[in-house]
Structure formats: C-alpha cells, structure tokens
Amino acid sequence: MALMITDECINCDVCEPECPNGAISQGDEIYVIDSNLCTECVGHFDEPQCRLVCPVDCIPNDPEHAESSEQLMTKYKRLSGLVG
C-alpha cells in the first residue's frame, strides 16, 4: 500500500530527502507522495524512512492505493530497472 501525507503535515522538509524513490515532493500546501513511486521503502529498507523521521506522525497508508508486499517489491524492481 502506498503511503500518503495528511493535512497535519507541518512542512518541516525532513521526509523528502529520505525517500529512496523520489516519491515525496512539495505540493500546493503540504508535501505529497506519488503513489506510482512509493514502495513503502520495500527493496531499500525494512520500514518507510519518511515515517521514521516525521515529527508529527502524519504519514499513514493510503487506502486508495492498496498493494501487497509482493506488488510493492515488483514496483521496486521496475523502478530500479531490475525488470522490464
């Protein structure tokens, strides 16, 4: 399941550089996560790095983008160029 950033975001700028897939960017008002790029850090780390550094705990799972661990690994491989 991809992650999302809620409106509790305080724009502290700590999550964006932690994302190994470049899925986090500054939106109109708060940071946003591109669900096409978010793998919850599967393939890179044991847990989502953005969640580890977020001081306000505003990065839950995105219920509109449910994905299994296997789907996240497939996405990671595709994004990393490991599969075509």
TrEMBL record:
SUPFAM superfamilies: 4Fe-4S ferredoxins
InterPro entries in alphabetical order: 4Fe4S_Fe-S-bd, 4Fe4S_Fe_S_CS, PSI_iron-sulfur_center, YfhL-like
Keywords: 4Fe-4S, Electron transport, Iron, Iron-sulfur, Metal-binding, Repeat, Transport
Record's GO cellular component terms: cytoplasm
GO molecular function terms listed in the Swiss-Prot or TrEMBL record: 4 iron, 4 sulfur cluster binding; metal ion binding
Tree of life domain: Bacteria
4Fe-4S ferredoxin-type domain ranges (all copies): 1-29
Listed name of the protein: 4Fe-4S binding protein
Source organism (scientific name): Plasticicumulans acidivorans
